[in-house]
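Bug #77: duplicate submission created two jobs. Keeping one. Sequence:
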Amino acid sequence: MVKIMQIGRSIIGNNHPPFIIAEMSGNHNHSLDRALAIVEAAAQAGAHAIKLQTYTADTMTLDIAEGEFFISDRNSLWNGQSLYSLYKQAHTPWEWHAPIMKQAEELGLICFSTPFDETAVEFLETLDVPAYKIASFEIIDLPLIRRVAATGKPVIISTGMATIAEIDEAVRTARDAGCRDLILLKCTSTYPASPENSNILTIPHMRELFGCEVGLSDHTLGIGTAIAAVAHGATVIEKHFTLSRADGGVDSAFSMEPDEFRMLVDETKRAWQSLGRVQYEPGEDEKRSLVFRRSLYITQDMKNGDSLTRENLRSIRPGLGLPPKYYDMLLEKRVNRDVRKGTAVEWGMVG
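Kept job's structure:
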């Protein structure tokens, strides 16, 4: 018996359309009004869920602006900032969570969050979130995973940078702590990620290896990688979402705008619908087209006793005559009655 996994009103699995999560992250640019507008836009774009991140700069790191606490990487979107200043800029104030979740509920969206420490879990439990997400960078934080799993709610874990051993340890920790509904997300922790380093073929392997639902946390630009993921069995797609990349924000460079997100929702659903089953015979809708196959027809008026030749017997459309495979067999056979041009060949007319 296949176990049914459900988050809120959404059922997750191969027999259902992909569960699409819009990740707000820090794209609210420290405006609650903008955060609420993002929720509304995500709902209009067809997202099934909106996801927040629950932390403060102090729960993430130390207020130090040098050494390993300072980002000095020209390839990083956040080059030149301290970790503390970055998280202070990007965090979603905890007092915003309730109004954001209320707005989501009114618009039919599921709303949940990524906690980054146990205090965030305690806070989110007071809001009765329907699920939890563990970020790639926290997959090695087993105490956090243990606390989240102990809630008994579905847990989604991103696997960016993780080895098989680290994923296995996280999965065992979650299950041992009470998690019964687990989703792993293939993820590449570069921002943005490229299709070339997405390695979507990992998805079916991960499903078989860990025996759970598997999806994609996608940092690539566009929708091609997400569609490929669905084609390889992904049942969850997570993408960062913003109102406009031009407005800036910590994650705006690799976030989707509303029109793009609508395309993501529509095209991943089409990709899922196209998977179907293994089938070789014509489907019900195809049977109407069988008439347009080629078949054997008389192409000149013939008299009783005339021989079939390459001049008066051809393989043409439509498909109401004998199949073309009998063409050579019929050559030089004599017709047993007068036959008009345009007559479909049948066995009863020769011999």
